[in-house]
Structures are given as C-alpha cells and as structure tokens.
Design goal:
Elements: H1 3-11, H2 15-24, H3 30-41, H4 45-55, H5 60-65, H6 72-75, H7 79-88, E1 96-100, H8 106-114, E2 119-124, H9 127-139, E3 147-149, E4 164-168, H10 173-184, E5 193-197, H11 199-208, H12 211-214, E6 219-220, E7 226-230
Parallel strand pairs: 1-2, 1-4, 2-3, 4-5
Antiparallel strand pairs: 5-7, 6-7
The structure holds S-adenosylmethionine (SAM).
C-alpha cells in the first residue's frame, strides 16, 4: 500500500468508507487495522521491538519509560484515531505538528496524508525506532529528517513552536510534568492545540494544569482516549466541525 493511494481514498474525507472496507476484510478493531497498515507501509516493528527487548531485558525502569515489552500496538495511536482527531482541526490554519514521544512516527505519516503542506517533527528517544521510522518515511516519500532522536525531558531541550502538539502518555508523571510545564509557560501568549492521549497525561492535566482547560474548555474526541486543549480557541467550536 502506498501512502498516495490512501491519500486518494482520504482526499474527500472518506476515511469512514475506508474503515468500512477494512472491516469487510475482517479487520475488526482499530489496532488490527493499524497493524495491517503498518505492514503495508513497510514497517518491521515486531523485529525492532524484539531486538530492543532482548538487548537489556532486565532494565525495567527504561522499559517502562520507553514502552518496551508491551504488545506493540498499544505503544502507538491507531491510525484511525490520529485521523479522526486531526480532522477535527481541519478548519484551522496549521503549519506545523509536533509529536512529543513519536514512536515510529505514525502521526507524521497521517499529517502528510491529511495536510500535505504541513511541517512535522517527531521526537523519540529510542534510536532504533527512529531509524525504522526514517526508513519507512523514505520509502513513502516523506522527509526522514522529520523524525529526530532526542530526549525531550533533558534540561537543554526546548520545545519548538508548533500549531499542534501531540502527546501520548510518553513516560511517567515526572517526565510528563517537565513537558507540560514548558507547554503551559506563558500559555495565553502562544496559539496552539494540545492533543493529549491517555489516562496518565489527562489525569495529570486535570489535577495540576487547569490553565489548559479553564478558559477554553476541552474536547473529548469520540471513541478515543484523546482530549484536545487550546490556548486560544474555545473548544465548543469543535462541536460544529462536520
Ligand atoms: C506511547 S508511545 C507514543 C508514540 C506515538 N506518539 C503515537 O502516539 O503513536 C510514547 C513514546 O515516547 C517515547 N519516549 C518516552 N520518554 C521519552 C523522552 N524522554 N524523550 C523522547 N521520547 C520519549 C517512548 O520511547 C515511546 O516510543
């Protein structure tokens, strides 16, 4: 499967049709569908994850931070969720999307599909995942430089400006706090959306970062565990998006 073919499918926002046709092929859940997409796009994730895990099977702290040793479809957001969520923001001007803890770079692939002129940066600390992601980006005609091997909680790391940040429970609460502190600094002077996926990050926001939802509310994306926050747009606006 090439990304181009899917782009044609998605051009008229006919993702639902595509999902339906996948169901007809017996691919029931979004994770199963995503696994098929991974294969078709040329990913070799099982091999990379097995090699990674066998390198140091006893470092539990690193494994939990890097989401290692888990069924690898839980490590990444299903393609359908990324599409549904990004589509909710389709009416807004978006020049750049940043994924904080990017795994193999799925979000970047979907950005290319839905917003071909948009820029993307995916930061990921596990070098082997970045290498595999870059290989597939090259294969699919995306810029491999979009994926960067970085530890985003290092003191020296400054989060670049972006219109959308995507953050899926990338690590433990302490690490999440480092990133949320940076994102919420001078919050109302910046204009961005934050898509936060997962229980850990959204509970932390609920408890410690009311600034993210006090003024503009938040939007729970149907059938996903993604929540959208914004520094400048009232989240009621998203209810109107068709
Ligand atoms: C749950 S996965 C999400 C992957 C991708 N964003 C998605 O939604 O498909 C989180 C990723 O963050 C990475 N990660 C954890 N701590 C990190 C850090 N300090 N800097 C960069 N990446 C990190 C993990 O290795 C893992 O690949």
């Amino acid at each position: 499967m090439s990304l181009k073919k899917n782009y044609v499918l998605l051009e008229d926002c006919r993702w639902q049709d595509f999902a339906k046709s996948s169901e007809n092929e017996g691919l029931k859940t979004s994770r199963e569908k995503s696994m098929k997409w991974d294969e078709d796009l040329g990913f070799n994730i099982l091999k990379v994850e097995e090699d990674l895990y066998s390198q140091d099977p006893h470092d539990e702290d690193y494994h939990s931070r890097a989401w290692m040793g888990l069924p690898f479809q839980t490590l990444q957001t299903p393609y359908s969720e990324i599409i549904t969520t990004l589509n909710l923001l389709k009416d807004f001007r978006v020049k750049r999307v940043i994924d904080l803890g990017a795994g193999y770079g799925r979000v970047g692939l979907m950005v290319k599909l839905l917003r071909p002129n948009c820029d993307f940066i995916g930061y990921e600390m596990v070098g082997e995942r970045v290498k595999e992601g870059k290989r597939v980006y090259q294969l699919q005609g995306l810029n491999p430089q979009w994926l960067k091997c970085e530890n985003i909680v290092e003191e020296s790391f400054d989060i670049p400006e972006s219109d959308i940040y995507f953050l899926y429970d990338f690590s433990d609460p302490q690490d999440l706090k480092v990133v949320l502190d940076q994102l919420t600094e001078n919050f109302f002077q910046k204009e961005f959306f934050l898509i936060a996926k997962g229980k850990a990050v959204n509970s932390l926001i609920q408890m410690k970062y009311p600034v993210l939802y006090a003024a503009h509310g938040r939007h729970w994306v149907e059938d996903t565990d993604c929540v959208i926050y914004s520094s400048f747009i009232d989240m009621e606006e998203l209810k109107k998006v068709k």
